[in-house]
Amino acid sequence: KEFNIKVLGALVKLVAMVMSLALISSCQWKKKSSKAMRRRRGGAPEIHLDLLIEILTRLPGRSLMRFKCVSKLWFSLIRSRCFSNHYLTVASPPRPPRRLYMSLVDHLECNSMAVCYNPRESALLLFTSSSSSSNNATSFDQDLTLPGMGGRNMKLLRGLILYIVCRRACIYNPTTRQSVTLPAVKSNIFAQEDYRKSVLYFFGHDPVLDQYKVVCIIVVSSKKIKRITSEHWVFVLEPGGSWKRIELDQPHIPTRLGLCINGVIYYLASTCMSDDIIVSFDVRSEEFKMIQGPPLVSAFKPIDFIEYGGKPSVFDHTRLRRKGLVELWVLEDAGEWSRKSLVLQPCQMHLVNKYTKWKVKGTTHNGEIIFAPLLLCSPYYILLYDVQKNDLRKVRIRGIPKHWFRKPDTNLFFYFEFMDDSESIMHLEI
After folding, report:
1. Out of 20-24, 194-198, 248-252, 289-293, least confident range
2. In this structure, are residues 279 and 252 in contact, taking their beta carbons and an 8 Å threshold?
3. How many angstroms separate the Cα of 155 from the Cα of each of 55, 109, 166, 245, 338?
4. Would you say residue 69 has pLDDT above 50?
5. Which residues lie closer than 8 Å to 312 by C-beta, 6 or more apart?
6. Residues 81, 116: one domain?
7. Residue 224 has what pLDDT?
8. With 397 labelled, which of 159, 244, 287, 383 sits at a CA distance of 20 to 30 A?
9. 278 lies in a domain?
10. Domain, as residue range, for 189
């Protein structure tokens, strides 16, 4: 069955390539006599649009970008929102099965709490599983960096990447190599003289109305979080979009990067009264909701907020290096928290170096939790932890440009995200 699927995928790709060559050839023959052209058109059978769509949706995204020049029909079809959504739902063997994106940022003053006056260097690297080595090796595939792109707090959603540069949100499609920068939020909140100022962005998608929305939260707070002032803004990613302020009488400080699950954005936050609040934002209704976090969990404790089993979860690994203990708190559908405690197998304790500080960088599409060292050193390894099997494995990341390892630790930030099995060919326009 697997062999037949591969053969079918190869045949479909071959048919599409033959079709494109035929159409290109027909365009080149337009300078010939109209009589010969009519004979050529009369002898070529037309392909039904439904069949054409089924063929195109089984091609890699890079090929589709080239095929937009075949004809006006193909150009309009490939750029249409309906086709791009259909493309996301079709699984195709020619597409890469696993893609690990790594964002490297060397911005001395470019972060979510200070305006960037002197940006330095950024890179977006794509890694794929090496077919020539074991499953414990991931190799550098290509550099997707564009001039002026790259930033902090990288988040992936349905094939699109959100990152922050100089307090402004940028959306990048690695398949189409297209990037857009959202306009700055017009807020006067930073005029207040206070201790801490920050701008954070979250990325969500409404599956009902098929809308992408960016949420911006601007926060000014006093020392020791005794006073918080926050503003909440929403931007619909569409032509002519603009920022709209959402009124909320519960000021808070987001303390973790957000997750978008089934049309709802979740993130960990702190208020003046509590530091263990989960905030949810319904992308369609644009309504905020406060949820009590799990017990004994603090927003300022070294824990991580991840998606596990399609649900928002809090992962506590503060005792992993010393005792091999981890705790996973999962927010169930009824609003209650379920707890799962795990003890790492003794034979795997050597993988958790006691002298290395680890940070959770998200989860893979298979549900494995990604651990990465806080410092970028060579040779570079990450750990993948399977909670269901209670299994930990070590994966080496090869091909990172050597000059990144020589940068000062105080200026270097890096982020990992696993892309799901689908690519996005959505055309970005604001």
Report:
1. 20-24
2. yes
3. 31, 20, 16, 22, 26
4. yes
5. 259, 261, 266, 278, 305, 306, 330, 331
6. no
7. 73
8. 159
9. yes
10. 99-419
Q: Whole-angstrom Cα distance, residue 10 to residue 82?
A: 25
Q: What contacts 355, CB < 8 A, 6 or more positions away?
A: none
Same domain, yes or no: 241 and 293: yes
155 shares its domain with 219: yes
User: How, if at all, do strands 391-398 and 137-143 pair?
Assistant: parallel
Check whether residue 79 and residue 119 sit in a common domain. no
Q: How many CB atoms lie within 10 A of CB 324?
A: 17
Q: Which of 175-184, 223-232, 336-345 has the lowest mean pLDDT?
A: 223-232
* Within-domain flag for 362: yes
Residues 380-420: pLDDT tens digits? Answer: 889 999 998 999 999 888 888 888 887 655 567 777 777 65
Mean pLDDT of the chain: 78
DSSP bridge pairs for 288: 281
Strands (E), 283-351: 287-292, 303-308, 311-316, 325-331, 337-343
SS3 label, residue 215: strand
More confident residue, 203 or 89: 203
Whether residues 196 and 67 fall in one domain: no
pLDDT at 283: 97
Q: How many domains does the chain have?
A: 2
Same-domain check for residues 193 and 61: no
- pLDDT category at 298 given cuts 50, 70, 90 is low
Comparing C-alpha atoms, which of 175, 182, 128 is closest to residue 156?
A: 175
Say if residues 105 and 125 touch (Cβ distance below 8 Å).
Answer: no
Identify the H or E element spanning 364: none
